[in-house]
Amino acid sequence: MTSTPEIAIIDPNTLSCLGLSSLLEELIPGAVIRTFPSFAAFTDDTPDMYAHYFISSQVYLEHTAFFLQRRPKTIVLAAGEAGPQLAGVLTLNIYQPEKDLVRNIVQLHSHGHRHGHPGKLPANPLAGHELTAREIEVLVLVVKGLINKEIAGRLNISLTTVISHRKNITEKLGIKSVSGLAIYAVMHGYVEADQI
Q1: What is the C-alpha to C-alpha distance for residues 83 and 86, in angstroms, rounded to an integer?
Q2: Is-contact 57 78, C-beta < 8 A?
Q3: N or C terminus: which one in the chain shows less Cβ crowding within 10 Å?
Q4: Buried b vs exposed e over 93-128: b needs ≥16 C-beta within 10 Å?
Q5: DSSP 3-state assignment of 172?
Q6: Is 99 within 8 Å of 193 (Cβ atoms)?
């Protein structure tokens, strides 16, 4: 039996915590995401229960010994490409466009879970809600950034049919945003992370 993945965000910046939490909830439906304003608040919880730690570079630098022991689970939130150079630690540039941020989170997930994930969701949590071949084609084109009219032209179907397929995809998967659909498509092998 698999458990729900739990993710900790440790950052004194409330706005960063809220934004990242919102994005991760969209990208990883069902995940439990908790935010902590300080390392002390985090350690007062049960720190080793989390599948991932998204932490500010300041918190990482102040508590390196703790996070080095948990390196595969640690992702440091870097302030741009010029953030601290942290050898062997995964970093995420938080000052980039949403599409790039989503792509990088997907790539971090792929890199970090090549050999499985202790708290991963069941292989097919949507059993009974599989997409049709045409819906998969539409999904792939949506996550590659095509608009409905372009999808209709590419697949040689009507605009109304494209809209109908998109509605069915959203209802079946329970995912409304393009970024959420992108992570679904990558995690199920429909597209590579570098194609979105």
Answers
A1: 9
A2: yes
A3: N
A4: ebeeeeeebbbbbbbbbeebbeeeeebbbeeeeeee
A5: helix
A6: no
DSSP letter at 73?
G
The three-point CA angle 10-16-60 to 5° equals 35
pLDDT of the chain along its 196 residues, tens only?
446 789 999 999 999 899 899 888 887 778 899 999 999 999 998 888 898 899 998 888 888 888 888 888 888 888 765 444 555 678 888 888 888 888 888 777 665 554 444 333 333 333 345 888 899 899 999 988 899 999 999 999 999 999 999 999 988 888 888 877 887 787 777 877 677 7
Which pair of structure tokens corresponds to residue 16?
Answer: 């960063």
Q: Tokens 């009974």 identify what position?
A: 128
> What phi, psi does 52 have (nearest 5°)?
-145, 150
Q: Scan for tokens 């792929």, then name that residue.
A: 110
Partner residues linked to 36 by β-bridges: 10
Instruction: For each of the domains in the chain, give its residue range(s) and CATH number, in order of start.
Output: 6-112 (3.40.50.2300), 133-195 (1.10.10.10)
